[in-house]
Amino acid sequence: MRKLPASYPIALLIAVFALLPFAVLVELAADGGPWFDSHNIQVLINTLLLMVLTGVGAVLIGVPLAVLLAFVNVPFKRFWLVLFSAPLALPSYLGAFTMYFSFGQGGELETLFGVSFPALGGLTGAALVMSLYTYPFVLMTTRSALLSVDTSMINAARTLGLPVMTCLWRLVLPRVVNSIAAGALLAVLYALSDFGTPAIMGFDTFTRVIFVEYNAFGLSQAAMLSLQLMVLVGLVLFLEARVKAHKERPGKPLSIWLSKTTVSAVLVLFLPVILLSIVLPLGIFVVWLLREGVSGFDLSFAWNSAYASMLAAIAAVVLALPVAYAALAGRAGRIMERVTFLGFGVPGIVMGTALVYLGLKLPFLYQSLGLLVLAYVLRFLPLAVGTVRATAESLDGSLTKAAKVLGASNFEAFWRVSVPLTTRGIVAGAALVFLEAMRELPATLMLGPTGFETLATYLWRVYEAGYFGRAAVPGLLLILLSGLGLIIMLSGERHADIVGDKEK
Asked: How far, in Å, CA of 323 to CA of 331, rounded?
């Protein structure tokens, strides 16, 4: 009889624990009102409109950029790829915050340049911001697919006189449509779960209305809306899982040579994307810093953010180890791993609603730092599991077997051989959890202990109070943290490329 892997019991316990928020929401929603009244239907329509417009906007920006950065002779292509991917690393509420206070009569742009721009808000403002910060999903999935396209048919069509643009439209894009759809669904999922952007733009989606109900002590109504939101999240995740990229044997890559003038014109055409998503937030925060200084900011806000995020990062990697090794041990372990991944699909506002109710049931947890750290761990555990598992998969299993032959117990072989060899994945996973927890807004607003202010919550407080100039320091620090996250992601990509080259 095959012995049960030692990691299974612990991984099973963690997987069951990951289902806790769903069980809490179901119990809490039982006391809620009707599921489909006129207000709920309007919120659903608003949410669907934002999802659709975000997906369309992300495709309209991401697909042309993917073609440009995959096929065209762009100078410094790596630099442009990093630059156009950068908005993905920033929390969208930073962009929404600066755009809200920059546009419109009396906005910062009018103050600085003397030119009045139309105000941004509602569905238009929310869809614009979400498109600007989610198009990199489409860019990356589409570019990856384009680079694997066999271009022999395209070259033949060009030889027969078919224009390049016609070849791209009729021969290339239909072959990568699944990859485009996958990126668009990721953008839609982001828009569906985001709280900060709709809230700042004053547009009633599920996330904003859930927070309003929570503040009005309508916890049962908030739970019911959370479950409705989770139905939409589940639908998007189901569609995303069903969309599979078409794989084909790569051939000679397609190269499109354009004049320097044409390439420059195309880049200038997409320059507003970078100006609005990267330059505007950074520039406005710097202007506010020069104007207001560090007035109202306390270093304890940064320390609180770092302390809570550090605790979450440590807890996440400790829990990730048994889950990752269970996933490598067999099918049952892979199922447990997928259960823990559910937390990453739960919007922060939903996680906050569930754990607030849990805190009310268990008073020793209510408004405690432990409850906030628990929310971070449940949400971002998949980040740690993914990096640890990816590192563990590349290990030579003979080393562990040799340790056991020499008399080491299973635990000794794991602790003294496997864990040190997965240090890179552990550090990377902890860093990703730390950075995401530092930027988390809704769960921190709902679960943070009384008087426990973080960078994200302080930014929200000054927005509510209208003292937008005081957002400079937390805004710049969050941008810096986002940059660090982007560096970690890119370094992981380079490592994967190096490993792939060695295997070839």
From this structure: 12
65-114 residue pLDDT tens: 998 888 888 888 888 988 998 898 889 999 999 999 999 888 899 988 88
Question: What backbone torsions phi and psi does residue 214 show, to the nearest 5 degrees?
Answer: -60, -45
How many helices and strands, by DSSP H and E, does the chain display? 28, 0
Walk me through the domains of the chain, giving residue ranges and CATH numbers. 1-31+293-504 (1.10.3720.10), 37-284 (1.10.3720.10)
Task: List the Cα angle 427/429/431 in 5-degree steps.
Answer: 70
Percentage of the chain modeled with pLDDT above 70:
85
Q: What gap in Å lies between CA 74 and CA 191, rounded to an integer?
A: 31
Q: How far apart are CA 197 and CA 224, in angstroms?
A: 22
Give the pLDDT band (50/70/90) at residue 144: confident
Beta bridge mates, 72? 256
List residues bridging with 256 in a β-sheet.
Answer: 72
What are the phi and psi torsion angles at 72 (to 5°)?
-90, 145
Query: pLDDT tens across 351-376, in order?
Result: 999 999 999 888 888 889 999 999 99
For residues 63 and 138, the answer to whether their CB atoms sit within 8 Å is yes
Pair 134, 197: CB distance under 8 Å:
no
Helix axes 423-439, 472-503, angle to 10 degrees: 150
Residues belonging to the chain? 504
